[in-house]
Sequence to fold (234 residues):
Amino acid sequence: AQKVTQAQTEISVVEKEDVTLDCVYETRDTTYYLFWYKQPPSGELVFLIRRNSFDEQNEISGRYSWNFQKSTSSFNFTITASQVVDSAVYFCALSEAFMFSGGYNKLIFGAGTRLAVHP
Amino acid sequence: NAGVTQTPKFQVLKTGQSMTLQCAQDMNHNSMYWYRQDPGMGLRLIYYSASEGTTDKGEVPNGYNVSRLNKREFSLRLESAAPSQTSVYFCASSEWTGVMDQPQHFGDGTRLSIL
Fold:
């Protein structure tokens, strides 16, 4: 069965600190996708990144970076120099690849990590 | 630039009442999904529709029904609401380009309280 674990329920940091959000996943599929979504206090879900299981390259987008390690089944998310606007709940999610599921992807979400960035 | 639109945004029901949550997307996506979000549990899939005319159960389908009215619209119905169905409901849509999975786009959610 597929499972996503985000062990950190809440993290509190002071602005400009770096923070890493952990994500560990379980799947028997050899082809799969991993995602990170952000849910700000306003409640909507904002897509941040998608990574397929064949691509273990780390990715950097501005202050955000992602570290994907298949050997440890982890897909961790780091925010550098955090800002108050980064305060949100962050979800890691896993899905089987479309090509094997028939054109849809059922996302399995972790429980989320609430990040509070204080001035 | 609407994306995925959910109505209503808020609703309070009494136990036993019925209700339909509406969802429409304007991105011409084939696949649509309904999730519920409960504190400490992330989002869980209720039902999904891989394409127009098909629907399938997700992780937590009990107490719900769905209708894929057309390619744009996917509704979720609670026939006899129960307090355990108090939650925030999200609709999403996605597409496979044939080359790469596209991420799901989510609506803003419907906050449903059942007394």
User: Anything to note?
Assistant: The longest strand of chain B covers residues 87-94. Chain B is about 0% helix and 50% strand.
